[in-house]
Design brief:
Elements lengths: L5 E6 L3 H5 L1 H4 L13 H6 L4 E7 L3 H11 L3 E3 L2 H8 L3 E4 L6 H10 L4 E4 L7 H14 L2 E4 L7 H11 L6 E7 L9 H11 L5 E7 L11 E2 L7 E6 L4 E5 L5 E6 L2 E6 L4 E9 L2 E5 L9 H15 L7 H19 L5 E2 L8 E2 L5
Parallel strand pairs: 1-2, 1-4, 2-3, 4-5, 5-6, 7-11, 9-17
Antiparallel strand pairs: 7-12, 8-10, 8-16, 10-11, 12-13, 13-14, 14-15
Length: 351
């Protein structure tokens, strides 16, 4: 029987779209990331026919077509969607265009979308994306790669098996990252390790000049040095200023903590009297999160099941970040979710 292949296109031939692999190759833990770009991950899929790329910069289109042996390139993504009729689309443009591109792809008959983070710049945009994908039955995975990587999946398996007892807190040590550019990764992993359930409210700090809120639009991507999330299941989530891109899950029976951005995980069990002893965390294979996210989307298209990073969860994690910015607008007040201020827009002018 011939292998079912999905016609796939890439929109956005920049860093995450096509070239970030060059930065990572040779890194100590490159096995956890390569293939990293959307183009390289598409090329690694045996069930994909990579038929087209689009970018507004013609020179990039030409270079990426040659690099990844793609037959056709376009400077107008709509022309590409109409001509190539892809079933699978990767979106790796700057965030201001994500909502437009997701809606257009859904309306053109695309059945699976892998979208780079950040998801969008406002919850109003997220609502439009959800409406289009629901209407057209589009499956979705979000480009927060850690969600598809084996160490994090094993951590969640241990949590779900009760090895940590009742989970009390998930703590992110990810520095004063920019709200959309980096804290979207943080929010998604807090959500993932807390069980992917809804949050009741958030409260925090964003580095925004108060005057910048006058038009309900933050003209930039502000750092978030501190944030708190109250999940509906009782788990407490924390954004902290400490750097290192590490995550800790603390429960009544022990703790799990990532090291070296997920290349290692420390597991400590409660042995009584407030003391913890080391336990052996099961060895996990190094595999690319981007490629795994695409494989999961393809398998979901094959079987009709839900994906591991569906749009409703991407929206949920995006709302945590925008909720923290809203908390700053309200001078540190608690912000109940779902976010009432759907029009609050965060984004740089050149996005």
């Amino acid at each position: 029987m011939a292998l079912k292949k999905y016609r796939a296109c890439l929109i956005g031939c920049g860093r995450m779209g096509a070239t970030i692999d060059d930065e990572v190759r040779g890194h100590t833990h490159s096995g956890y990331w390569l293939p990293y770009s959307h183009a390289a991950a598409l090329r690694a899929q045996d069930k994909v026919e990579f038929v087209g790329v689009a970018d507004v910069v013609a020179d990039k289109v030409e270079i990426i077509c040659r690099r990844y042996e793609v037959a056709r390139g376009y400077t107008d993504y709509r022309e590409m969607l109409e001509q190539e009729k892809p079933e699978l689309v990767c979106i790796a443009t700057r965030p201001a265009t994500h909502a437009e591109l997701v809606v257009a792809a859904a309306e053109c008959g695309v059945k699976g979308i892998y979208c780079e983070k950040p998801l969008c710049c406002s919850m109003a945009e997220a609502d439009a994306m959800m409406a289009a994908c629901r209407k057209h039955g589009v499956l979705f995975n979000y480009g927060t790669q850690r969600r598809y990587m084996q160490p994090y999946l094993q951590m969640r398996a241990l949590i779900q098996a009760g090895e940590l007892g009742q989970v009390q807190a998930v703590i992110a040590q990810c520095g004063v990252g920019a709200a959309l550019w980096s804290q979207t990764h943080t929010a998604d992993m807090l959500l993932f390790l807390a069980g992917d359930g809804p949050a009741e409210y958030v409260q925090g700090v964003a580095l925004v000049d108060p005057a910048d809120f006058a038009d309900n639009r933050v003209s930039g991507d502000p750092g978030i040095p501190m944030g708190y999330v109250r999940f509906a299941n009782g788990v407490h989530g924390y954004f902290t200023v400490a750097g290192g891109y590490e995550f800790e899950v603390s429960g009544t029976r022990g703790k799990l903590r990532t090291c070296d951005d997920g290349a290692g995980v420390k597991w400590r069990r409660n042995r009584g009297g407030g003391l913890l002893e080391a336990a052996e965390f099961p060895a996990q294979p190094a595999r690319s999160g981007t490629a795994a996210g695409l494989r999961d989307l393809i398998d979901a298209l094959d079987t009709g099941r839900q994906t591991q990073g569906p749009l409703h969860l991407a929206i949920r994690s995006q709302e945590l970040v925008l909720g923290l910015v809203e908390s700053e607008r309200l001078q540190g007040a608690r912000v109940t979710l779902p976010l009432e201020n759907r029009g609050l827009y965060v984004g740089r002018d050149n996005w």
